[in-house]
Amino acid sequence: MTSVLHIDASLTTPEIHFDLEKAHFSIKGSSYPENSLKFYQPVVQYLADLVNTHTPDPAKTFILDVELQYFNTSTAKVLLDILRYFEQLYEKGQPVKVRWLYLEDDTEMEDAGLDYQTAVKLPFELVALHEEA
Q1: pLDDT of 73-97, one tens digit each?
Q2: 3-class SS of residue 54
Q3: CA distances from 88 to 61, 81, 91, 93, 130 (A)
């Protein structure tokens, strides 16, 4: 399995950058692709392979940063699937931390983060970002 998965952002899809060596995984931008399952298929496959082959390393914490400005309902389902893969890694003994980043005045994104926080059993931090002047 490759240690890095990178997908450039487009107008309707987020940048995905998963780096196993650095233990950093990020999803950033907006996500409303015409076909969410098709767009996220390489991400889901990467995580499925990771869950099946990864030996937990207690000295390394996997950080998942989710920084979305907008996502549609089909993306919402896939995001939960992605979080569930990290939950499986966590249950196997891999330290994992999710950081849900949102603009401080974006109550919809804050609420979405709170919903995901209650849906999974993972260390989960909501991080309010200040608008750049």
Answers
A1: 999 999 999 999 999 999 999 999 9
A2: coil
A3: 14, 11, 5, 9, 32
Q: Please report how the helices 36-53 and 73-91 are oriented relative to each other, as an axis angle in degrees rounded to 10.
A: 0
**Residue 86 and residue 123 in contact, taking contact as beta carbons nearer than 8 Å:** no
Write out the DSSP string of 89-119.
Answer: HHHTT--EEEEEEEETT-HHHHHHHHHHHHH
CA distance 11 to 62: 28
Cα–Cα distance between 79 and 104 in angstroms, integer?
21
Task: Compute the distance between CA of residue 61 and CA of residue 23 in angstroms, rounded to an integer.
Answer: 7
What's the mean per-residue pLDDT of the chain? 96
Domains, the chain, ranges and CATH? 9-129 (3.30.750)
Give 132's pLDDT tier (boundaries 50, 70, 90).
low
Query: pTM of the full predicted structure?
Result: 0.95
In the chain, the amino acid numbered 72 is N
